Amino acid sequence: MSAMTQHGNKDVSERLQRIKERLRRATAGPWDAYIEGKNHTDGSSFVKTPTGGIELDGATDYDIEFIANARQDVPFLLDLIQSLST
Question: 15-35 pLDDT, tens per residue?
Answer without folding.
Answer: 999 999 999 999 999 999 999
